[in-house]
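Protocol step 4 of 6: structure prediction from sequence.
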Amino acid sequence: MHLNDSKAALGSRHEYIGLGQLGISVFRHIVSDSRTQNIPLILETLTFEATEVWTKEISTLNCLPELVDDGKVSETELSLVNEITSLVRSRATSKVGEASNTHACKRDVTEEHEHGSGCS
């Protein structure tokens, strides 16, 4: 079974676990259901480079069945979603920084070609 949240109510745009239209509680029910035990579960969320996000999503999915409906479930689920969100934002921020540095280097290389200065 493939697991991913959804960016839209209809369609196949994948989203990180708990951050989309389905929400984290749906995944708690899925991974707690006896029918999903002993079958392969394939995490089918966004980027291939953000292994720290995947690691958090997997650990989240593994701990969800242990949550007992004692009134604190939504608080715990919210905490797990916040951790995933934090990793996703951190990853996005570092990607923007990398892109910005690449753009600056390209601009400097162009200037070097035109004016003789360089990007180290």
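Step 5 (inspection) to follow. The longest helix spans residues 73-115.
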